[in-house]
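Quick one - inputs below.
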Amino acid sequence: MPSLQGLVKNHPQEKRLFQRRLWVAGAIILSLFIVLIARLIFLQFFEHQRYTALSDDNQFALLPITPPRGLIYDRHGVLLAENRPIFNLMLAPTKIKNIPATIKDLQTLLSITDEDLKYFDKQLKQNGRFNPVVLKTKLSEDEMARFYVNQYRFPGIDVQAELVRYYPLGENFVSALGYVGRINVQELKTLDPKNYLGTHYIGKLGIEKFYEPQLHGQVGYQQVETDANGRIVRVLQRTPPVSGHDLHLSIDSTVQLAAMRAMSGQRGAIVAIDPRTGQVLALASVPGYDPNPFVFGISPDEYTALRDSPDRPLYNRAIRGQYPLASTIKPFSAIAALYYNAVDPDWTISDPGYYTLPNGAHTYRDWKKKGHGRVSMAKAITVSCDTYFYQVARILGIDRLGNMLSLFGYGAKTGLDVDEELSGLVPTPAWKLKTKGEKWYLGDTIVAGIGQGYLLTTPMQMAEAVSGIAMRGHHYQPSLVAYQTLSQGKIMPHIPKALTPIYLSDDHWNLVINAMRDVVASGAGTAHYNFGVPPYSVAAKTGTGQVYSTFGQEIKKTGVPKHLMDNSSFIAFAPIENPQIALAVVVENGGHAAPSIARQVMDAFFNEEEHALPPPPTP
Amino acid sequence: MHYRHPPHPEFSTPHGSTRSLLQKWHLDANLLQALLFLISLGLFILYSAGNEDAHTIEGQCIRLLFAMAVLMGVAQIPPYRLRSLAPWLFFIGLFLLLAVMAIGDIGKGARRWLDFGFIRFQPSEIMKLAIPMYLASLLHEKILPPRLKTLLIALAIVLIPAGLTALQPDLGTALMLALTGFCVIFLAGLPYRYLLIALAIAAGAVPILWHFMHAYQQQRVLTFLNPELDPLGHGYHIIQSKIAIGSGGLFGKGWLKGTQSHLNFLPEHATDFIFAVAGEELGLLGACILLLAYAWVIGRGLFIAYTAQDTFSRLLAGSLAITFFFNVFVNIGMVCGLLPVVGIPLPLVSYGGTSMVTLMAAFGVLMSIQTHRRLWSK
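Output:
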């Protein structure tokens, strides 16, 4: 019926047409099924090993276990640096679709400051999206409670505990301990990346920095199975970390606290040493500052306030303050004179109150305008006669004076176990030519004889030097750590390091030490009134560093503004027969404050019942 | 061939009582067996994918029972009745689609849902059935192969609802709707030259379509082309799902032992990405068994279409079976990394979804077509 084609439905033909089309569709379906199966065979047979490895990577992780940082104690076991748990709010970026909205929502519960957010953004960029990022540190218990009640609303947000350094005695010990802080980019480059995998903090200053390798310990590992949020599902294998060594400092917190208290309101430093071993008993720089904010990263405002404070609390005066030796040099000048036989111990002068060079070119004044009359070497020390030591210096010459000062430790780092120490300065003609471009004048030698001019010392060096006198030349290198306890309970004691001895006859030692005793004991002594009469024997020497030259004019001290007042320094040791403590005090613009401050520190030391370092516990 | 002279159903099954009951309820035994096998397999996989949660299985079973009831209900309606209902269904659906544009709820950033207070549903789901039914009823009246005028009308019937759905925007469903409509037209005998022209136009439309796509849709395509481009963002799904399937190997890690899904590396593992769980835990073997179950269902659907007795039934049955296949193919293709990520669940296996009801209604239509056949053949 060709004429009806296209006008009337041809059912059998339509059915055939449909069935042909259905065969085509069926063929397409079959081939697509084959494509799927081929794809599955490709993934599950040919690529199986690769995807198994990727799946294992997903599932298993080698996580570092941060070793607990070693604790720091004083010599009596008082805890100076500990690890406290803090709780941080962590955000897992992969689990959160809209991070800004989530944070906004969280802010209705907890205060998240702009600074927190800034730090968070920085970390987010550094960490990539897979690692949880700190959103807020140091949650309070109240904040934690508020968060936990609402946690169901915040998938991907969790609280994580972390051990963080804490210094319970705050500013009192910062000059010795220093502090830890977050590892920065530069430090990261020099660290062993494996050992520091789980560590966020590193010693930045002081003991914490110097003993970083010992305090840190060895990282541990655990092989874990994790879920997509990085949460540990199962621990498969665990290698425990080795915790850092505990440090037992020789510092006596009683003495340290007494030093801080005695200096309060002043600017300056106190260093006390046990001369028998060189162990430091107190290392105080005043004013101090609280190291705890530095652990987390101090806020810029707080830091600026500390940095710009006129009292300069960040400046560790005990080991970095460089002051003129002033009159504290006189016992050392005397020892130099005796050591080199430059001056007879019985030599005396008549002091008119000034010293004129033999050629009459220049006149040097004594601090006492009318002079001290007839002055022997002992009296010169006791009354701090400048005229006598001008002459001693001239006779000795700068080389021999400098040599002796160096033997006592001036002009070089003492080797204390902190990194920041400065070396002070014992000048030489070569040094002057090199740095000033000038030749050395006799006048430079003359003023060096009373500790003025280019001579500079740190309080640490002064304490070391005076313990050299206390020990009659058999002195030790100063040290802060008395012993370390290792994680297995083993003890690692610090062995005192003897310095080159200074040999002098007993008579000569007696001469100098008795003169120093009279500085306090004799009515003529310069510290007699300021130090008072202690129940123990003490040898000392005062010093007054001129900040403002009066050009020999007498000015009423009350008329001088505080910041132009002289620096007051003081060195001493006690008891004379059996020295247990040697100390140095420097008070900036302190007038004559140093002796009375030293007295308070020494009293605190001698009032303690037990001075000996308790024996290390037997393992 | 016995297809042309199908034996009376009364004599085709050996079990008299079952047979008569099935016949009475207008259920096709073979398709029912295939569906029950697939559903059982699906629940077995879902139990693991849903982290062994009884509530998940319970919810899924309730949904399945409801869908099964819909299937049985639809199966009772004879094909000629379906044909007369088709225009109504289509225009109601179209009206609801327009309504959703106007007052639709905001759901997941796209306006797809209509809320009647007691039930929320997507009008585009109705269209999945309404388009092939209406097209088939229309072409039933025409001489086939269709002429250009008929084709243009048919094209409008497909493109208007598909376009509205695309505007919601729900590109995945829109494409499936277009595909369903296209299947009907193709089966009706669309001349191959038009097909070539249409393909050429489609190729030309790609850049224009790209221009009108939402950023997230563009991203999906880009990520599909190179998942490693954004391994933690948009590429994450595909990478993790490939890892799951690939690490499954020939025999799988074992039921309930998939690390990718149980440790939450694989996202959406109970819904759109459930096939990856099957691949991971049951391996190539399990995945092939699942594919076989689908093949059975689809094969039976195609058989029903092949043996259907009038144009409407043929076109409708054929397009529904093919559409079901494409649902499966698009989902598994996506999970295997062959196709871009479009939010289409794995039919009858993925957890939840209103599409399950639509799918079962479609199988109801197939059963109706198969069981209302008269015993004569043309």
